Amino acid sequence: MTAETLLKVDNLKVSFKTYAGEVQSVRGINFEVKKGECLGIVGESGCGKSVTSQAIMQLLKTPPAMYKEGNIVFEGEDLLKKSEKEMQKVRGNSISMIFQDPMTSLNPTQKIGKQIAEVLREHKNISKAEAYAEAEKMLELVSMPEPKKRMNQYPHEFSGGMRQRAMIAMALACRPKLIIADEPTTALDVTVQAQILELLQKVQKEIGMSIIMITHDLGVVAKMCDRVAVMYAGQIVEQGSVEAIFNRPSHPYTKGLLSAVPSMEMDRSKALTTIPGTPPDLFAPPAGCGFYARCNKAMKVCQNHMPQMQMIDGELTSACWLNHPMCPAQNRND
Ligand SMILES: Nc1ncnc2c1ncn2[C@@H]1O[C@H](COP(=O)(O)OP(=O)(O)O)[C@@H](O)[C@H]1O
Ligand code: SF4
Ligand SMILES: [Mg+2]
Fold it and tell me: Domain residue spans in the chain?
């Protein structure tokens, strides 16, 4: 762990106990978030993105959730070893979350100003008047029109985009070092989505925080992120700089995801290519590569042997048997 590292997730495994057996939602993932950077986590629905973010925040109920292995080290301390009381000092203070649905964090029965002020008073030793003044400043920071008036309104008096801004103002109130955004713009129309992403970028610069941007939208990654981790079936299959992932992806799943993205020039009405097939059952995940059943490059070795993460170059790591030095070169060609 270098001095620049803010968060290090190390071999994290999370399962859920259900009546049908154990779902292995997160199967040994490793990643780091450096100070000031934006890391994207991408992958299809159900691959473990939200479970990963909720694990970092310790928001999963145990049981049914079980932390089977691993560490989540934030500023040198393992969050998995903290008590609920200790986590309450972290949540909303040094790590905050924003969600697709702002009403996950906003209280419909309280005025916006009061809600933001209360978060501040919970974590900072400040007076009520100071907290209200700071709350109004936060609304200004997220470019809320007429912040003074908005302070005295309830969430239902806001448009969807404005509610999103209010939630972001609340998440940022304590100037967190890390913000985890779980599909924050998925429910918004394209124009509002762009505004919210620009807002996050602006605030990131001002506060100097790190972001984990969870999304299934590679357009969001291209706009926001410095590095990307590609998740599939509870694992990270490829990880690297945005430049490397977009220009020279090595994993067949990443290549499939990228070819499923409409380019700016392409007619958006044209049907998108999607990767045929479905992800494996996480009740009984395959012994080998999780992508085996859908991969057009699959080899015999892939079925029963798990490919290990390998450094492709300084900017890219990937877990695929095609990277093995013994793999015949013709198998790698596109
Ligand atoms: N509380 C739960 N109980 C059982 N299974 C769960 C629970 N939460 C998530 N899962 C399962 O874990 C897997 C990963 O889910 P999730 O992290 O929400 O995916 P996504 O990448 O879409 O955010 C899915 O198979 C999901 O069904
Ligand atoms: S390990 Fe094999 S099945 Fe998995 S992505 Fe690589 S080539 Fe395809
Ligand atoms: Mg999710």
Answer: 246-334
